[in-house]
Amino acid sequence: MKHYWKRFKQLPVYQNKWLKISLAVLLLCIFFFFITLSNVYTETYNIERFNEAKETIRSPLSIENKKETERERREAIQAVEDRYEISSEITQERAGYVNELFEAIDKLEEEEKASKARDEEDTPAATDKEKAQKLQQIISPKLSEALDREELIELINASSEKRSLAKELLTTSIYEVMNDGVTTETVENAVKSVNEKLQYSSLSDEMKEVLYILSDFAIVENSFYDAEKTVEAQKHASNNVEPVMIRAGEIIVTEGQTITNEIYEQLKLVGLLNDDRNVYPLIGLILLILLIGGTIVYEMHIHSKKRELDVRKIASIILISVLMVSLMKVASVFTDSVNQLFFLVPAATGAMLLKILLDERLALAMSILYSILASLIFNAEIPGSLNMEAGIYLLFSQLAGIIFLVSLKDRIAILKAGIGITLVHILTVLLFLFLSFEKYAIADILTFSGYGVVAAFLSSVLTIGLLPFFETGLGILSDTKLLTLSNPNHPLLRKILIEAPGTYHHSVMVANLSEIACEAAGANGLLARVAAYYHDLGKTEQPHYFIENQMGITNPHDMLQPKQSAEIIINHPYAGAHLLRKHKLPKEIVDIAEQHHGKSLLQFFYHKAKEQNKQVNESDYRYPGPLPQTKEAAIVCICDSIEAAVRSLKEPTNEKIEEIVTSIIHQKLMDGQLNDAPLTFKELEKIRKAICETLNGIFHSRIQYPTDQEVKEAN
């Protein structure tokens, strides 16, 4: 199996970082697609008309039922009554005839009284017929034709009070009826309406009969059909009809209900029949997944610029994404309008794991993407809808995990972050409850808040439980792992301290320099610090052969041949790497320990050997390598040489420190020791300045206090 794994590593596909990233993200996108497919692409049914429904079927989308809308609009138009234009001129004209008649009678009566007043008693009084005849001459011909002499005589012989009452009743009734409009079809009814009012008056029957004739004469058609107003009213009625909508989630048919034609048409309209499946939601889902996948690839690219992005880290992103989306999908199965179980999802787990294992920016970006997927997953499988409450809640949950996870010195920091997440969960739950129009009981508030507390607790527990799997199972070196390894009580560090105390002090100094230099160059300072603690572990095999441990003893190299001394010195990186592998320390630390001398030359022993024999082979006095492969390894390599050189200075002034730092970096470059490290000249200059500033701070000028002898002499 190992043989095939080695061969796989040698393939161009494996060596191509971007091909690996693209392949991993493609597989993740396929997973996202299939797990969210049911949320946009609903089940279809093989249903026939007039059969009983085997299950309750809801609409997967909101859509207008155009046929039903058109039917309601037709009914609204048909319900509109014809519009008519009422002619007030005709009303005035017909009422004018009645007024004219009664005014003419009053005038005749006045003339008769005036004639009597002129003492014309001898003049015989006009007979009723003569009066009627004279009246016919002065009134309108239409009135003359409508009334016979007998009706006129009845009006003439009536008292003025009766005529006044008759006139008032008739004209008022005529105005009331005709002002409402009288059509050809309603003339007869209008006359009857007036006659009914006259019938209950105190007038004599003979007078009523005359008035009946007058009403029949006066009331005519005065309301005419107005096509323009009718069409306008129909349009208004049609526009007021709201579109008939089938809402997403609305029950179309319940279990056991007969599939009528209307129900069948609704099922067909929303695309729930086998031959009517809608492919547009599927296209929309593919576009969403492509956008998410593109964002993940971009964020991986950004991360790879800051830190190495190997197969293990890619695998961790994929596994965390699969875990988080799977948890959401499981919770969505049991979520309904009553039980909002998305409050229970421990979403902050993924955000905290990504921040610990990779970095904060990637954790933030993935949190946003998980929230978008959550709004889709918790949409109750209604295509075209998003559950924004679920998306917002899970986004705040993950942001809380990222923000509150600080000062990660131990696992307790994760539990402390859980307290902050709990607070954010409760606030978010209350936010949704108070913004809702519904009135929630205290029990509901406590229940949903309790869900938030449980989710925060699960987030902390899952993060603590899963972290060792990623650190050990995938071999990912997280900051928490590095902080654990930096503990001075670690067995290997205690071994260095006890067996090679000078080397331990040297390692601590190198660690300080390396961390500061890495931060200046944009590398992982914590990794460099911890690796520097262990980089000289191999010296514990023969500690006295290294000058920093030779306190008060004779240098044993004085009794050895240069080649023997060189072999002892050259062996220590590889002996240290062997011990580190044996104790299963992370590969990154092992690599730095093995690479921190690269292929540099042991100049002292090489020149000493050359003094004895000019035919010395230089390769015997060079470390076999490999060269530093990472920024951190290269910086530890530089700082290791600089610390040893500066420590040997008797009077380390600022000028001497800067000179020796510059010289060592230049020497490493010229000797090709940094050829494989991804460092630029700009970064090397930043490293040089950072190291110089740190060393100048350590070896700053001190006041030279006088000795006791100098004090005595001064006195």
TrEMBL record:
<dbReference type="InterPro" id="IPR011624">
    <property type="entry name" value="Metal-dep_PHydrolase_7TM_extra"/>
</dbReference>
<feature type="transmembrane region" description="Helical">
    <location>
        <begin position="21"/>
        <end position="41"/>
    </location>
</feature>
<keyword id="KW-0472">Membrane</keyword>
<dbReference type="InterPro" id="IPR052722">
    <property type="entry name" value="PgpH_phosphodiesterase"/>
</dbReference>
<dbReference type="InterPro" id="IPR006674">
    <property type="entry name" value="HD_domain"/>
</dbReference>
<dbReference type="Pfam" id="PF07697">
    <property type="entry name" value="7TMR-HDED"/>
</dbReference>
<dbReference type="InterPro" id="IPR006675">
    <property type="entry name" value="HDIG_dom"/>
</dbReference>
<feature type="transmembrane region" description="Helical">
    <location>
        <begin position="415"/>
        <end position="437"/>
    </location>
</feature>
<feature type="domain" description="HD">
    <location>
        <begin position="503"/>
        <end position="645"/>
    </location>
</feature>
<feature type="transmembrane region" description="Helical">
    <location>
        <begin position="390"/>
        <end position="408"/>
    </location>
</feature>
<protein>
    <submittedName>
        <fullName>HDIG domain-containing protein</fullName>
    </submittedName>
</protein>
<keyword id="KW-1133">Transmembrane helix</keyword>
<feature type="transmembrane region" description="Helical">
    <location>
        <begin position="279"/>
        <end position="302"/>
    </location>
</feature>
<keyword id="KW-0812">Transmembrane</keyword>
<dbReference type="Pfam" id="PF01966">
    <property type="entry name" value="HD"/>
</dbReference>
<dbReference type="InterPro" id="IPR003607">
    <property type="entry name" value="HD/PDEase_dom"/>
</dbReference>
<dbReference type="Pfam" id="PF07698">
    <property type="entry name" value="7TM-7TMR_HD"/>
</dbReference>
<feature type="transmembrane region" description="Helical">
    <location>
        <begin position="362"/>
        <end position="378"/>
    </location>
</feature>
<dbReference type="InterPro" id="IPR011621">
    <property type="entry name" value="Metal-dep_PHydrolase_7TM_intra"/>
</dbReference>
<feature type="region of interest" description="Disordered">
    <location>
        <begin position="112"/>
        <end position="134"/>
    </location>
</feature>
<feature type="transmembrane region" description="Helical">
    <location>
        <begin position="314"/>
        <end position="334"/>
    </location>
</feature>
<feature type="transmembrane region" description="Helical">
    <location>
        <begin position="449"/>
        <end position="470"/>
    </location>
</feature>
